[in-house]
Amino acid sequence: MLESVCLIASTKVTPREYECLEWPTCGKSCTYVAQIVNVRPTHVARDVERVRAKLDVRSISQAIVLFAVYKAGRAPNTD
Known about the structure:
Structural class: mainly alpha
Distance between the termini: 26 Å
Number of helices: 5
Radius of gyration: 12 Å
Largest sheet: none
Helix content: 55-70%
């Protein structure tokens, strides 16, 4: 799992792909993300699928979980 999380940091993810993967970690659907980003839902699904392929995982859910873990690890320490 840690190896995959490190892979996110080294993977070339476009700003749109990052945004389209970030919102589902908050429970948002592709349709809702499309409204937020102001694109069609098919564009969101395509961007998420590209990230899935870049991370070499089998499902979009796996990509979202890895992204959530990566994001949590990058959160600033509030202590």
